[in-house]
Amino acid sequence: MKDQRIAILEKVASGEIAPVDAEKALRVLDEDFFKVNRYSNNSWIDWIDKIASFVKPEFYIELKNYEDDDSQLVTLSMIKELILKHIKEDYVDGLKSLGYDDLDDAELVKAVIHRLDLEFIQYLKTVGYNNLEFNILVKMKIHDVTPDFIAEMQKFGFDDLRPNILVKMRIHDVTLGFINSLLECGEEELTPNILVDLRIHNITSNFIQKVRSYFKDASLREIQRLAISGSNFSRIGEYNEIFGEELTIRDLIKLENHDVQPDYILQLKEIGFGDFSINRIISFHNHNVTPEYIRQLQDYGFNELTANEIINLSSHNVTVEYIRELLDLGFDGMTLKEIREFRIHNVDVNYIKNLYEFSFDNLSPKLIRNLAIHNVSIEMIQHIKGLFEDATLKEIINATIHGVDVEYMNYVIDLFPDIKLKDLIDMCIHDIDKQFLLLLESKGLIDLNPRQVIKLKISNVFDIE
Predict the structure, then answer these.
(1) DSSP state letter for 160
(2) Beta-carbon neighbour count of residue 405 at 10 Å?
(3) What CA–CA distance (Å, rounded) separates 438 from 418?
(4) DSSP three-state, residue 77
(5) Distances in Å between the alpha carbon of 18 and those of 14, 209, 274, 446?
(6) Which residue among 353, 369, 386, 461 is buried most deeply as judged by most CB within 10 Å?
(7) Which residue, among 150, 168, 115, 110, has the nearest Cα to 134 in the 3D structure?
(8) 346-350 own/partner pairs: CB under 8 Å, 24+ apart
(9) How far apart (Å, rounded) are the C-alpha atoms in residues 284 and 290?
(10) Cα–Cα distance between 357 and 236 in angstroms, integer?
(11) What is the pLDDT of residues 308-355, one digit of tens each?
């Protein structure tokens, strides 16, 4: 291996190969070394010994010489070369006679390593598996698709299984005993794919019998879905008692997937809530609607709520404490829809308390909601009220909508001390900025009132480039 690494480095130095190609070659060399060392100790000896019927005695003599030579390490590539050098001619001839006369060197080595014996290929031909691709043959051999296994499957009517299906059945341990145990459970419609699926999901005959003790008519597909879900079907008796009817496997899977406990359902039932379907209960659970939450809403007089209304309240974090705080502020007539909209737009109690300090008339839930929607801060209200004592909430909202900020208000009021809030908003709407006002001043128009300025702007008499 040392000599091989040196040879690669010398090729790089001479320019014969690029550095990137050298890196790949060195990586392959390292992988080759590590692969062969997987067969170390006893497993290494077993693996080598098992190919004795495919190679000549000289293979072992030459391999021992390599092993005794301390100056070099035995690699997988070296072993493959030895196999190819000492493969028995009668084995190669036998492969050719069975139709495999165009195998390349790599395929011949693979056939030996996996002990693809001629008898195995001949048997497959006798049971109808003719002209199989070489890689399919190897795969069947690797996964121990033996003549005995094929014969066992044929006893159950599986006469023409595709090779890949046979391999899959072998990989997942579909055995004669497993099939018999299913037949004893009364299963008759067994297909290779069903058998494989059952094994993949560790569904035994005992599991099937246990499920059917709760679900008498459960199909194998339903049992498979139940196994995949990991549902605790031992609780089905509790669920059936609560609902007053036998639930289906689909119902159980839904409840278990969403971790809906029997106690939770029982508490909802005790409240007397009318809409008691499984889907509704799951929706309640997913939106953190607790029985206690419903009970508290009822205590505040909300007795006729629909399930969707309750879910909407809970999903928007409308807590009972929040409702209580709003009612304590005097909003006795608020509907739950208005309360939910308050929560959606982040209207908190402190915001409302600060609004009360301005002594606005008709401070309705709708106005408060609109203030929150347009992000009208208490600081903005204070500033506008400081400049325009009689400003209404609608005007303040309008000013915010049209982008009137503190800097713009201060600048315009310095020029027009007696301006009305409505005119100031109109000036902002028509984009009357400092540049336009300076232009008017340069034209000698210094005694105009706000309405005249707005008209000039609308008329486009002075276009600013």
Answers:
(1) S
(2) 12
(3) 19
(4) helix
(5) 10, 66, 78, 81
(6) 369
(7) 110
(8) 346/372, 347/372, 349/322, 349/325
(9) 7
(10) 59
(11) 888 998 999 898 888 888 888 887 778 888 888 989 998 888 888 888
